Predict the structure.
Amino acid sequence: MGDIAGIVLKRLGLGLITLLVISIIIFGAVEFLPGDLAQAVLGQGATEENLAAFRKQLGLDRAAPIRYFEWLGNAVTGDFGNSLVSQKPVSEAIGERFGNTLFLALYAACIAVPIAIFLGVLVALYRNSVFDRVANVMTLTSISSPEFFLGYILILFISVKWEMFPAIAKIDDGMTLMEKLNRTFLPALTMVLVVVAHMMRMTRASIINLLASPYVEMARLKGVPAWKVIVKHTLPNAWAPVINVIAMNLAYLITGVVLVEVVFVYPGIGQMLVDSVSKRDFPVVQACCLIFAATFILLNLAADVGSILTNPRLRHPK
Amino acid sequence: MSQDKSVLLNIKNLIIEGYSDEKWVGIVHGVDLTLHRGEVMGLIGESGAGKSTIGLAAMGFTKDGCRIGEGSSIEFDGMELTTTPESDLQSLRGARIAYVAQSAAASFNPAHKLIDQHTEAPIQYRIKKRLESQEDAMELYERLRLPNPKEIGFRYPHQVSGGQLQRAMTAMAMACRPDLIIFDEPTTALDVTTQIEVLSAIRDIVDQFDTAALYITHDLAVVAQMADVIKVLLKGNEVEEADTRTMLENPQDDYTKSLWAVRDFKRDQKPRPSDDTALVTVKNVDASYGDTPVLHDVSFDIYRGMTVAVVGESGSGKSTVARCITGLLPPTKGEILFQGEALPPDYRDRTKDQLRQAQMIYQMADTALNPKVKICDIIGRPAQFYSGLHGPALKNRVDELLDLIELDPSKYYNRYPPELSGGQKQRIGIARSLAAEPTFIICDEVTSALDQLVAEGILRLLDKLQNELDLSYMFITHDLATVRSIADEVVVMQYGKVVEQGPKDEMFTPPHHEYTDLLLSSVPEMDPDWLTTLLDERGTDSTD
């Protein structure tokens, strides 16, 4: 097991370095944008003197590397500065929004991952049957439709016509968990429809890929029933690629759901990012980007570790 | 033998077809087979003879894309398998007919412990409870002489050696005490010394439980030890069948006779040229993969026009020596000399001419040739790279090389590797190495993936080329029959060290080094009593 701990630590270290590089890129990108904070706050009409004075006040007259390290140092302790628009600390505003996004992502993942794997196993078992084709067409349709479209369709039927779940997913701290789950069911369902196909198809492909291997033939020649051949003899060896696709989709659930948030008026971080980009609220943009990057890196790290853990050679060294 | 016993398996007019190029093509064309209880039948033939297909058909199983043809009958213990529904067939498999595959390493699921795979069938059929079945597994492991029979089952496949896995698989086949076991080349992937252990273990356990068996192999000497009856197959047809002794002493058919005669090719040993310096010298070489040392102080010489065979079991470091010579793996100590001059250890530091001098031919011609590249380009590329040939000159050179390997240029020039047979692919591999006009060729197990007749053709070709082009070969092999036929000098390796070296005739006459002796005595012979005699002899001096 010492080996695995070593590998995980190494990956974690690499992840941190990647994050550092990304932070440089994020900071640099904002730096390169035409106009700066002062310009953005004071607007086009500001005089040169005003701008210079304001820059001095914000510390923008200092060299970029110094400001970078200051920003990074503060970011590490959770201080992303103040929002230019609301003048409140960025971390406060983001914290709550990011929590909401995580909640929705987790909700969707808890539905999508089991369904995807279950369906993947089923279509692998009944490969090339009518069921396989129907499942394929349906999931492909859902992945090919834009999520806002899916969202509106769901609202039309489930919310407006059948009045089963609310169309607006506004939540706040005062609600109970059940209330929240009820409110956010439609956006979660929309996201499930978007991500399920990818994971299901990977599960199917990865299982079918192994069906030609000698140990699967051996299992069949031992008289093991077909479903058990899939579940017991291929699935444990099929995890590695599936886990990676799951991680990618989880990352998407967290960072790529702006449209779903807009459609259901959900107070998540995606909407906030879009707002702050249009308002040139740089501290917020930087903070969001850094959080997204960290999410990606962490999930990929988790996928790597997951794939390693499913490899018996690494789990049980000689 | 077992003529008085009842018939267990009765196959009549077995036809098996495979689907390829949008039509059904015959693989097995009407074979009959009768097996009595407790009898062992050897099925032998080259690849494509349909032996494995027949073996699987005896379980009512065909590979994906194959089907059992009209009019075939497979009767197992009174049950007609061709009309039995799949679910009933399934409950037959593992329980009454078991299967032992060629590569145990690939046929055990890497994700589960050996014993869990062993107990799967008995639990499935409710023959035994888990604990009972585990105890039974340990007993079988002990009978099959596996080390630590109480614990070995709780390991994962990758933690156990190939020979042990093969025995564990035989134990697994025995789990439900089947009436019939299909052994599909169970020892082909093993070293000779390991092969003996597995063969004797299989033979004993089949004897003890009076299990009938179909023993599928291409190795006549092996089948002679195992079978009561031998059936020879060729391209899906039966050639002849007889009991083992009759078959060995008095084969009737010409094809069988030719199989028997394959091992006759033997070339006289050439002496070392006395005045010359060695073409290639491996001098005190140590090498390691990462922190694991694999070679220790390896030294030997290869003279111009001679063949040096490097023999040893898997893991002995034979192929690593080749990697050191070619510069793929720079040695950690020692050096490689070419005509007395030290070569740079890393191939990237060698000159084009130095690279040209040493070429390689690989074991798996299948994977060593790019399937998407035409033959003319496979051979033409090195000719162009090393000799700078272009246009008509290049075409002439490729034609010339194809002539050398005895393939008609007008037929093969524009073809792709997948259209060729195994032997032809290996010939292309040879032509590719010759294209560089080398003086020295490393042949890494070049015949071990080929049928005996085809392999012999390759050996004869290599011999002819050596005489015509004055080539030197380093012949890496674990097959001592190959060594006997083609080598001038022999280097025996074990655990990364050279244990013995010298001229071939000397090496094949006693006294030997202990390990050489073990290797030599482990090569199966065509005598059906060979295994028994050998085990008796060894029983006295080896404690295992």
Remarks:
- Residues 90-125 of chain A form the longest helix (36 residues).
- The domain at 103-271 of chain A is CATH 1.10.3720.10 (MetI-like fold).
- Residues 312 and 318 of chain A are 10 Å apart (CA to CA).
